[in-house]
Specification:
With about 325 residues, this protein is an alpha/beta fold. It has 2 domains: about 1-125 and about 295-310, no CATH class; about 140-295, Glycogen Phosphorylase B (Rossmann fold, 3-Layer(aba) Sandwich). Helix content is about 50%, strand content about 15%. It is built from 16 helices and 10 strands. The chain has helices at about 1-10, 25, 30-50, 65-75, 85-90, 95-100, 105-115, 140-145, 160-165, 185-190, 200-205, 225-235, 245-250, 260-275, 275-295, 295-310, and strands spanning about 55-60, 80-85, 100-105, 120-125, 150-155, 170-175, 190-195, 210-215, 240, 255-260. The strands form 2 sheets. The protein has a 6-stranded parallel beta sheet, with helices on both faces. Helix 4 links the parallel strand 1 (about 55-60) and strand 2 (about 80-85). It is globular. The relative contact order is 0.11.
C-alpha cells in the first residue's frame, strides 16, 4: 500500500478501501456485476461512516457516477481520480465528469475532453515508488546472463511480437507472460523467462546493458507509461519510443535514449551496445532525475496543491 504510506507520511489520516479484489467473484463474468454492486454499497457505507474530505480513487472502473452522486449528496467530500491509463479508451466517458478532479497522464485526452466542455481535468505524469523501484546488484550468475543484453520485461501481445521480430538480430531477451507461445520461432528463441517481480525484475533492469520500453499504441498516445519511471528509478539505460511528453520528464540523449522509427532504434542499439559505459551513465542520470522529480511523493504533493487551489481543501 505505497500510496497509503506516502499519504500518512505527508500527515494525512488515511483509510483504504479495496474496490477490486483478486477473487473468483470478480473474475467470473456471471458474478462480476453482482460483486461490483456489493462493492459499491460497501463503499457508500464506508464514506458515510468515515466522512472523508477527499476520496482518492486509483483507476476505479467499477465506481459509477451514480454512487459518486449519492455519496456527495450526503457527505461533504471530493472525489479525485488518479487514472493511470488512457481515459478515452479505458473508462466510460460519463464516469470522468462525475469526479471533482480527474488526473490524467495523457494531454491528448485532456485536450479532447476539454474540447467538449469538461473542466475537471488535470495533467499529472505517472511516477516511481523508490521503495519498490531501485537499483540492485545482480548476483554473479544474474550478471553473466545480462551483460550485453537488450532486455524487455512485459507480456506478449501481437504488436509487441511483431516489433521484437524486427530486432531478432540483436541480443534481445524477453521476460513476461505469453512469450513462450509466440507464433514466430525467432521470437520464441529470445525468451529468457516468464513474469518476474521484485528483486528478479530489478536485477534485469539493473544488470542489462539496455532496456526496451516500446509504448502501447492505444494506451500511450502522447503520454509516458509507468515503465519509463520504473526503469529510470532502477538506473536502467532506457531505449524508448518518442512521446511528446517525454522530453519534459527525461532528457533525450542524457537521461533516456529515444527513437522515432526502427532505423533510429537499430542505430541506437548498435551504438550503446558498443559503448556500455555511456549507457550506464545515461541510466545514472535517469535515476537522479526520477528520484529528484518523479516519485509518488512528488505527485501526491502536487495533487494536494491542486485540490487546495481549486477547492480550498487542505
Amino acid at each position: 500500500m505505497d500510496m497509503r504510506d506516502e499519504l500518512r507520511a505527508l500527515g494525512h489520516e488515511v483509510r483504504t478501501f479495496a474496490y477490486r479484489r483478486d477473487n473468483p467473484l470478480y473474475k467470473n463474468r456471471g458474478t462480476k456485476a453482482a460483486y461490483q454492486l456489493w462493492i459499491l454499497r460497501r463503499l457508500e457505507r464506508a464514506c458515510l461512516d468515515w466522512r472523508p474530505a477527499v476520496v482518492l480513487v486509483v483507476k476505479g472502473g467499477p465506481i459509477t457516477p451514480g454512487v459518486i452522486r449519492r455519496i456527495k449528496a450526503r457527505v461533504d467530500t471530493l472525489f479525485v481520480n488518479l487514472f493511470p491509463d488512457n481515459p478515452l479508451w479505458m473508462i466510460p466517458f460519463e464516469s470522468i465528469e462525475a469526479y471533482d478532479l480527474f488526473l490524467t497522464k495523457e494531454r491528448y485526452a485532456l485536450r479532447s475532453l476539454e474540447s467538449v466542455g469538461l473542466r475537471n481535468l488535470y495533467y499529472l505524469p505517472l511516477y516511481c515508488v523508490p521503495e519498490m523501484h531501485h537499483p540492485v546488484t545482480p548476483s554473479p550468475a544474474e550478471a553473466r546472463g545480462l551483460t550485453g543484453v537488450v532486455a524487455f520485461v512485459g507480456s506478449r501481445y501481437p504488436y509487441r511480437e511483431r516489433f521484437v521480430r524486427e530486432l531478432a538480430g540483436y541480443p534481445v531477451r524477453l521476460w513476461g507472460a505469453g512469450w513462450d507461445r509466440a507464433s514466430s520461432p525467432e521470437v520464441r528463441a529470445l525468451v529468457a523467462g516468464g513474469p518476474v517481480w521484485g528483486h528478479a525484475k530489478l536485477a534485469i533492469y539493473s544488470g542489462a546493458t539496455l532496456s526496451l520500453n516500446h509504448h502501447h499504441p492505444m494506451n500511450d498516445i502522447v503520454g509516458v507509461n509507468t515503465r519509463a519511471f520504473e526503469l529510470a528509478a532502477a538506473g536502467a539505460c532506457q531505449v524508448v519510443d518518442h512521446k511528446d511528453e517525454l522530453p519534459a520528464l527525461f532528457a533525450p540523449g542524457r537521461e533516456v535514449v529515444t527513437y522515432r522509427d526502427l532505423h533510429e532504434l537499430r542505430r541506437h542499439l548498435d551504438y550503446y551496445l558498443a559503448h556500455p559505459d555511456e549507457a550506464r551513465e545515461i541510466g545514472q542520470n535517469a535515476l537522479k532525475r526520477a528520484l529528484g522529480e518523479h516519485t509518488l511523493r512528488h505527485r501526491l504533493e502536487e495533487i494536494a496543491v491542486e485540490i487546495e487551489r481549486r477547492f480550498g481543501v487542505r
